[in-house]
Amino acid sequence: MESLQTMWSSRKDVAPVVPAPTTKARGDAAEDTALKHLQRQGLRLVQRNFKTPGRGGGEIDLIMREPDGTLVFIEVRQRASQRQGGAGASITGLKQRRIVFAARHFLLRLGSEPPCRFDVVLIDGTSGHIDWLRAAFDAS
Fold it and tell me: Hey, which CATH number is domain 24-137, 3.20.20.140, 3.40.50.12780, 3.40.30.10, 3.40.1350.10?
């Protein structure tokens, strides 16, 4: 008698089950896309996924430096659809405050404060179109 393992593995009409990518995997892929795009524009990576310690802090997806020395804190957002305002609408005031908090924490480690700005990279999940919004918000 044929084992179940042999029966299943020998069937030609059964497609293999491929798990859907996780939210983290999709986010990492979006960050990779944004990073490559920004590097082609002349920015240099300083740090990726900087997190403040403890609960309630913030995270910065990409910290990059412009050729002129400006430090750029970048939030990357990707959405599959424009429902609920799309990727840009997901960067709420609270999210901005958490990014600013994390940026201040990062700057404390430097000892001096270079010129800085907060950018957003929006990626359309269906077309792959990239919108780079320079100075999307400020620290005030």
Answer: 3.40.1350.10
